[in-house]
Design a protein that fits this description.
By secondary structure, the chain is α+β, with helices and mostly antiparallel strands. It folds into 5 domains: 110 residues, Nucleotidyltransferase, domain 5 (2-Layer Sandwich), CATH 3.30.420.40; 136 residues, Rossmann fold (3-Layer(aba) Sandwich); 221 residues, 2-Layer Sandwich (Nucleotidyltransferase, domain 5); 115 residues, Dna Ligase, domain 1, CATH 3.30.1490; 67 residues, no CATH class. 29% of the residues lie in helices and 27% in strands. Helix 1 packs across helix 7 and helix 2 packs across helix 7.
């Protein structure tokens, strides 16, 4: 089939257990989905298997080849997994003379508050002290040279790392956000004296102040750069063509460019899921939602307001702060593979440790011996005795035996034990939801929730009760929403420059020059991505705070000339945002001056998004398919085990209503509908779950 007959775009999201694939035929609007097992030893194997699978004739797109594909977008966990597994090996750090203990000093904050100070043990630094080297030279906060760069010392440092085979190096000099000259000279020395080294400099990774966060972010970039380069090179060679990679900020970038900024991919998959869910919900008339992406190892939660996700620069990956723009996502270890265990006090706990894909839950029959959330669902009959439509059989008897053994240790019935495991998992997920709503000043009851991912819909009824949610929306093919989201995002690059000044002292001409420079950087990047200048979009934003505050509030800044009206509008937006976030503002109090901190520009290259079509309703007089029945345990009304209807989602049509108890099954996921709940299929095929008394 020729390119003229089919313009197919493919999204591929590599997860810990499965690689999810979505293909969109842009000529017909047809969307097809599939899954293939992930291959942790070499994720490229699962990627290529997914491409081959979706291009085969089995999915009705025709027997296609890669020549028929207009574009491929990839969500990868390569960088994320390296950080979560804490493998920053063979990493070196070069900083300003006198600041060799910058990483050791870090910040005074203690995880979980100062009440944890007695028990908390400071973790090892990302680079130990003996691998930190300093170079003479000094800049002030305006970028003026106080002491010249010490070239001789730089050469000695470069040779020291070379002689010890340390090939990943981060460079962060004091105040280099204001002037990158010294860092660039250090990179030149390293290129000459240690050509094998992979180098990241802070003025390119994160050009803003706060030395500790800038240093760690730069080191994280240097740490993952070799792995990402190898992975991208391998994948590019096997594909024989270019592709794009999802970034944490909600944009994509060509693989050729992303190898130079791999840190931007650390939340690649979760970001795509939030954006895909946002488009699905907005199309169905819900512009503001909570998104819940339930996987095998973890659950990722975000908030979408008016179709846009919240962006933060205060994120962390594992134990490392990463001050890059990323969608504000909270992750908890509450997935299908989360392990149930007994604490030393004799209480039941669930997660964050996970059985993963290998050996996986007990019911996978791959050697797993510890009860997981999936095993509890299987034992209670809430998921079928197989996954992916029968491709992966599950050992129900093994899950039952494992639950019974755990129940004996707890002195409970197997049913009570299994429901207890699910209840704890539901509360773990609800705590994550509260973090992105209540702790951000939002009322969780104001938002419906979109539940997706393989395990996302499994606990939605309990979450409605625990949190008082209005409703939960379960999209079609929920296990592939992240892969679908990859096809909904624009090309996007973010640029920042620290620009600290009191509002009353703001030099509008200087601000205009900085923003012009940032927009020029954005334009160059979009040029390289193949976007014509008339398609470029530049989104400005500014970080501001009240003088004396430690952290800033980011607000959007208008386009157009940088004049007094522009300044006043930005400051007004800051007061409004501060009031909304913290409950107070000093709009009319001259004692609390406004301070400008960072100027930001996002360069956006818009793409065409797939259209979500309405589903045909059932013809007059057409009877819905009859359900099968299966023994399922629900304890809400005390009935316990009973035969409940099991519906094949493929047979449901808009307007169909199902009353719980029931189970709705599809290829990649399952929705257990508890007693007292009702599910209705909307015009786009989404299942909307509510408590019956709410209707």
């Amino acid at each position: 089939m020729s390119r003229e007959k089919a313009r197919v775009r493919i999204g591929i999201d590599t997860g810990g257990t499965f690689t999810d694939v979505v293909a969109v035929d842009e000529t017909t609007g047809r969307i097809v989905t599939t899954k293939t097992p992930s291959t942790p030893a070499d994720p490229a194997d699962g990627f290529m298997a997914g491409v081959a699978k979706v291009l085969s004739d089995a999915y009705g797109l025709g027997d296609l080849t890669l020549d028929d594909v207009a574009g491929i977008v990839h969500g990868t966990t390569v960088a994320t997994n390296q950080l979560l597994e804490d493998r920053p090996q063979d990493l070196g750090f070069i900083t300003t003379e006198g600041f060799e203990f910058l990483l050791e000093i870090a910040r005074q904050s203690v995880p979980d508050g100062y009440g944890n100070s007695y028990f908390w043990v400071k973790p090892p630094r990302i680079v130990p002290v003996h691998r930190v080297k300093t170079v003479g030279g000094r800049l002030d906060h305006l970028g003026n040279e106080v002491r010249p760069f010490d070239e001789e010392e730089a050469v000695r440092v470069a040779r020291w790392f070379r002689d010890r085979g340390i090939n990943a190096i981060g460079v962060c000099f004091l105040h280099s956000y204001a002037n990158p000259a010294h860092e660039e000279r250090m990179r030149e020395v390293l290129a000459r004296e240690h050509p094998e080294a992979v180098v990241s400099i802070s003025s390119e990774v994160l050009r803003e102040y706060r030395e500790y966060e800038r240093s760690v972010t730069t080191l994280v970039d240097a740490s993952v750069k070799p792995t990402m380069r190898r992975y991208i090179a391998n994948l590019s060679q096997r594909l024989g063509r270019g592709f794009s990679v999802m970034k944490s900020n909600g944009g994509v970038l060509s693989a050729a460019e992303v190898v130079n900024q791999p840190i931007t991919t650390v939340l690649s998959g979760p970001a795509a899921g939030a954006l895909g869910a946002a488009l699905i919900a907005s199309t169905a008339g819900h512009p503001s939602v909570i998104t819940l992406d339930g996987g095998g190892t973890s659950t990722d939660v975000a908030v979408i307001v008016d179709g846009e996700p919240s962006i933060t620069t205060e994120g962390t990956i594992g134990r490392y702060p990463c001050k890059i723009p990323m969608i504000d996502i909270v992750t908890v270890g509450a997935g299908g593979g989360s392990i149930a265990w007994i604490s030393p006090e004799g209480t039941l706990k669930v997660g964050p440790r996970s059985a993963g894909a290998d050996p996986g839950p007990v019911c996978y029959a791959r050697g797993g011996t510890e009860v997981t959330v999936t095993d509890a669902h299987v034992f209670l009959g809430r998921i079928p005795p197989h996954l992916l439509g029968g491709e992966i059989p599950l050992d129900v008897a093994a899950a039952k035996a494992a639950i019974e053994e755990l129940a004996t240790k707890l002195g409970l019935t197997p049913e009570r034990t299994a429901t207890g495991v699910l209840e704890i998992s539901a509360f773990n997920q609800s705590n994550a939801i509260r973090q992105v709503t209540v702790q951000r000043g939002l009322d969780v009851r104001d938002f419906p929730m979109v539940a997706f991912g393989g395990s996302g819909p499994l606990l939605v009824c309990r979450l409605i009760d625990i949190l008082g949610l209005k409703a939960v929306i379960v999209p079609p093919d929920p296990g592939n929403v992240s892969a679908f989201g990859l096809l909904t995002v624009d090309v996007k690059n973010d640029y920042v420059r620290t620009f600290v000044t009191r509002d009353r002292d703001l030099d509008l001409q200087a601000a205009a020059r900085v923003i012009a420079e940032l927009e020029a950087q954005a334009a160059d990047a979009l040029d390289r991505e193949g976007f014509a200048r008339d398609r470029h979009v530049y989104a400005r934003s500014v970080d501001l705070r009240y003088y004396g505050q430690a952290y800033e509030v980011r607000v959007p800044a208008p386009s157009g000339p940088i004049d007094e009206a522009w300044r006043a509008q930005v400051v007004d937006r800051f007061h409004e945002a501060h009031q909304r976030l913290y409950g107070y503002a000093y709009r009319d109090d001259p004692r609390h001056a406004v301070e400008w901190v960072n100027l930001r520009v996002s360069g956006i290259g818009p793409i065409s998004r797939p259209k979500i079509a309405e589903r045909p309703r059932r013809a007059p007089g057409e009877e819905p398919p009859q359900p099968a029945y299966r023994r399922v345990y629900f304890d809400e009304d005390g009935a316990g085990w009973r035969d409940v209807p099991v519906y094949d989602r493929a047979g449901l049509a808009p307007g169909d209503v199902i009353d719980g108890p029931a189970v709705v099954e599809e290829y990649g996921s399952t929705l257990p509908l508890h007693p007292g709940f009702r599910a209705e299929v909307d015009a786009y095929g989404n299942i909307v779950v509510e408590r019956r008394e709410n209707q």
